[in-house]
Amino acid sequence: MKTCFNLLVSALLLIFFVGCGGSGDSSSETNDTQPTNAEPITSNLAPVANVVADQTVTVGNSMSLYSTGSYDPDENYPLTYEWQIISNPDGSTADSSVSGSSDPIFTFTVDLPGEYAIELVVTDNLGMASEPYIVVVSTSNSMPVADAGPDQALADEDTTIVLDGSRSFDPDGGTITYAWRIVEKPPWSSAVLTDPTAVNPTFVADLLGTYVVELIVTDDHGLDSYADEVVITSENVKPVADAGGNQVVLVGDTVSLDGSGSYDANLDPLTYHWNMVFKPKDSVAVMIGSDTVNPSFEPDIQGTYILNLVVNDGIVDSDPSDVTISVLEADNPDDVVNALMAAIDAINELNADDFNNEKNREALTSKIIEVINIGTYDQSMLDKLRDDIGSKMDGCATVTEPDKNDWIINCTAQDAVYPLIELAISALEEILTPQ
Fold this sequence. Notes:
The chain is α+β, with helices and mostly antiparallel strands. Helix content is about 20%, strand content about 25%. A hairpin with an 8-residue loop joins strand 18 and strand 19. The protein folds into four domains: about 80 residues, Sandwich (Immunoglobulin-like), CATH 2.60.40.10; about 80 residues, Immunoglobulin-like, CATH 2.60.40.10; about 90 residues, Sandwich (Immunoglobulin-like), CATH 2.60.40.10; about 100 residues. The radius of gyration is 28 Å and the shape is globular. A four-stranded mixed beta sheet has the order 1-6-5-3, with no helix packed on it.
């Protein structure tokens, strides 16, 4: 009897659903049925804009900003760039028309004291734009930069972890103070920092799992940096890509790239993937061996070429690392350019410990490339060589030891580079001196 009742209910439900939808009007069928020839839906992730750290500059000098670290997760390259000055001191005439705003390098002249906020938006080759990235250039005091050190692998419980904030710095050469805090640790962990205000505090990782530690530094004007985090984990650590140092070459030279500085904290074997993020219009240059440690390409047009490297440890990709190649016409460079090209080579040969912050290797070579690319020999170029480049490495030559403004922080390293800057200065002075 119960079975018959269940069959009756099932039959009534079937009649109900057929009457309501299964054999309804054609409009209902059209709305509920997917077309058989529909195009597959694909997503395009937005690219990511990035600019080097905030900087301080003297009134009357030009300032160049670099789109270092901008990339597209989908690798829809090349990228295009749009810069604009979104705020400046009252009365300033600086604006984005001073230099080509579609280039990966943006240059303008600081004409009044105060702060200048510059915005960068990058767009991939499918037309997807990034979120704006804003960098501040100041004539008085710039934000310090926190560097919490590289991520670390954790193998055993009760391991003492040594943190390293020594690569943090103040662009103005001021003194900085440190503030560390553990923002994440495994449940039930009792880990605490020994001294949250030290450059190298420690803590005991008493349990396996993931620890995230944050560092903020403050300059002697009370201005805080953005927070930087370091991850210590018993799980897989993201590898680190290193695309090598910036270069200046001639049209037709073979450019050899070097990703051998990339590494993995877990010592996993790495695979390599290079992309040409930007190249001059009409260039048809292509990379050879883009999945190797040392790919190459032959630049065919004068201008700027930006390449990035992503490495993978078999589990996860690294963040991308950029390298800029500035290409000059094949005419023989003069003494000024030869000296500056040699200085870039010398900087690239230095060790990481030779800099107050490893990021300043790239910043210094970028500044030298900027001078080379000016093209016109004048007093402003001479001032930039003396005040903006030479002053970052002349402590040993002027006061017998590195000073607070030096980015190259030992005399052996300064002696390898500074004489080449002096040679370029002397050659430029000779050109500018009336005969």
